[in-house]
Amino acid sequence: MELHINQPARILSLICLVLLPMIVNAQCPTEAQLESGGTLNIPTNNDCSSAVSCTITSADFWDIDGNITVESCVTLNLNQNSSWLYILGGTFTINEGATVNTNRRLIVDGATVIVNGDLNVGDGNGTDNLVLTNGGSITVATTGSVDVGNGNIRVGGNNGGNTGTFTVNGSVTSSGNINIRNNGTLEGSGQVSYGGTFSTSGETTQSFTTCTEGSSNTSCGATTLPVKLLSFKTSLASPGTAQLDWSTATELNNEGFYVEKSTDGIDFESIGFVEGNGTTDEQKHYQFYDRSVHGNSYYRLRQVDFDGQFEFSPIAFVQAAEHDAIPQLGIYPNPVVSSFQFTKSLEGVFDWALVNTSGQKLFSQQNLTVPQAELQLNEMINRLDAGTYMILMQNGEGRQHIRMLKQ
Predict the structure, then answer these.
(1) Are 225 and 254 in contact (CB under 8 A)?
(2) Are 398 and 382 in contact (CB under 8 A)?
(3) CB of 168 closer than 8 Å to CB of 143
(4) Computed over its alpha carbons, how large is the radius of gyration of the chain?
(5) Which of 8-17, 75-84, 90-99 has the lowest mean pLDDT?
(6) Is the C or the N end of the chain the one with fewer CB within 10 Å?
(7) In the chain, pLDDT over 70 holds for what percent of residues?
């Protein structure tokens, strides 16, 4: 028996089939949603099958609160009709492939902004266009970029009690000035370009790969390192073989790299040497294979100068097995400011350790549950310097590591 559908119904069905994905993909938050707090993904229920653009306009200054995530397929335009600043609360995350644009100045006040994609700050008219204050922080990942236009960047507030942290591992561009004030901190290993002056009464602990000064400035405050490492990555090339790849932006008196390996992320031993390129301003790429991978392995580079001085790279990890016997565990928020939570609680007890990128063990305790380890690790968070750390956990069923960025 053949079924017949009348023509209007058929057309309506086709329209629904075409428009339904568009309706789902076009969901954008309202101004009230951004201000209401809580957790909000932008856009909700979007499968990234097509790009989404959201434009939200406010007539007054905003107090955007809660945990906001801009997904990788989204362009979010935040527009104001006045000269007031955007004030962000909670954790505002811009995923890789996402773009956030503002048409006015931006203040990060006691909030955390994580930029894995692109952040473009609007017209500052030569004033402080991007401000970090009252403990506000921005972390620009290696995949991220921040463009501040023709305004200035200020890290730290107007008195000694105000703080801010700007971590730049990607790129930051401004045609204005950079001012690190009071208790402000500028750090990272990325690229910073500006057209005005650089001034600081705070801290500049950065080792930037590129630091472009304006005509009236003579220094970015960057530390000159013998070798500026751009990246260090590891992968499992084949069963039993780990592939290590790294690159440098510049090298000064670089004899080479000792490749060091560990099975627990704490105790390392040298397994090979790769000759460096001495002194060069050209980007160089290196590769090394470890063909004796029998379990989960940790790697680091010990870069050595001709005069014997050396420094370590961050630790990289290769997971030999396709899946860990221990269910995967993460932490939130990450970067961590003063405390964190594990993303789930697992049954049983584990052995725990916290190590820095040089492999130094800062914490070690056996037979702790996940909540017990969370409590003890949080007690020492505020004593840690800003940087990258590794939380190691293991029992008789397996081992895993959790990378933690401390701000």
Answers:
(1) no
(2) no
(3) no
(4) 24
(5) 8-17
(6) N
(7) 74
pTM for this entry:
0.50
Which has the closest alpha carbon to 179: 159, 161, 157, 162? Answer: 157
CA 28 to chain centre: 25
Pick left, alpha or beta for residue 142 (phi over 0 → left; psi -120 to 50 → alpha; otherwise beta).
Answer: alpha
Judge contact between 181 and 154, C-beta under 8 A.
Answer: yes
What are the helix and strand counts (H, E) for the chain? 3, 36
Residue 241, number of CB atoms within 10 A of its CB:
15
Q: Which residue has the tokens 């002056």?
A: 197
Q: Provide the pLDDT for residue 362.
A: 86
Q: What is the SS3 assignment for 137?
A: strand
Angle, vertex CA 330, rays to CA 329 and CA 331, nearest 5 = 140
Tokens of 369: 């549950």
Structure tokens at 63: 């107090």
Sequence-separated (6 or more) residues with CB below 8 Å from residue 67? 38, 39, 40, 90, 91, 92, 93
- Determine the longest span between alpha carbons in the chain, in angstroms: 89
For residue 102, give Cα distances in angstroms to 2, 47, 126, 285. 57, 25, 16, 37
Contacts of 12 (CB under 8 A, 6+ apart): none
Q: What is the DSSP string of 29-40?
A: --HHHHHS-SEE
**What are the structure tokens assigned to 269, written together?**
């031993």
Q: What single letter denotes the amino acid at residue 379?
A: E
Q: In this structure, what token pair is assigned to residue 89?
A: 């609360």
Cβ atoms within 10 A of the Cβ of 47, count? 10
Give the per-residue pLDDT at 270: 93
Q: How far apart are CA 8 and CA 45, in angstroms?
A: 30
Pairing of strands 297-305, 241-262: antiparallel
Contact between residue 407 and residue 167 where contact means Cβ atoms under 8 Å apart: yes
Q: Supply angle C-alpha 4, 6, 9, rounded to 5.
A: 120
3-state secondary structure of 79: strand
Distance CA(50)–CA(402), nearest Å, equals 32
φ/ψ (deg, to 5) at 19: -85, -25
Both structure tokens of 34: 């951004």
DSSP state for residue 336 in the 8-state scheme: B
